[in-house]
Amino acid sequence: MWCRMYKIYLLILVGLYFNCGKLAAQDVLPDFTVKNNKSKISISWQNKYKQNVKSISIQRSYDSSKNFSSIYTVPNPADAVVGYMDIHAPYTKMFYKLFIVFDSGEYIFTAVKKPDIDNNFDLTRAIKKINDENNRIKDSIEKANRPVKIPAPPAPKEPGKKNNKPKPVSPVKDEEPAPQKKDVIPYPSKRIFTDKDNNVNIVLPDFKTNRYTIKFFDENYKHLFDLNQINEGFLILEKVNFRHAGWFFFEIYEDGGLFEKNKFYIPKD
Question: Model pTM greater than 0.70?
Fold first, then answer.
């Protein structure tokens, strides 16, 4: 998993903060809270979106307007309260923002924030309280969702029939896939490809005159997320948004029609 590469501590909060010292209330998405607690940076927020959130990535940069890179993708973005401890931040005055993708395919970048100093935060006690509560909630959910095994009734026997298995059906020629067209766009794509850092680059120079939608799929062609309302000719998606190495597929739609269908590969680091 990508999170192992970064060797960072993850703090997942389920519900509101507990009584474990003086803790500030968390801002509600798309706003979020950034605190400097004794040189340990905490990023947290409440999620009260009515629409389903598909993924949330935390990004940071030395600069307030460019060179942002994703440092973590939240595994459970729909949690009511989420927090992350960036204890290995190279600089205590880094800039942070969130990249949020919804189930509808829409996405947003939040405003950029710098950490506020707050030395009244009892980090050790907070982590212990929250981890204990998370383990209790996880155990109760697993216990409630544990399936009850009910033996299936025996199938009735039909006398006089030795073999009731259906005969295999021959494939119908009309249902065979159509041959590929000669003008198939070759791999790799000139519009979506990986760079030297294995991040995914998107190049759409005519985005102002055409309306583009991009759909992403995993190696089994399972839908991951969409990018709609693209208003930039060059975008970079951090590789952590795809969560693992391997092949990924995409479809580019131009003004509602399929424009390109291709793939790209993200190697292991």
Answer: no
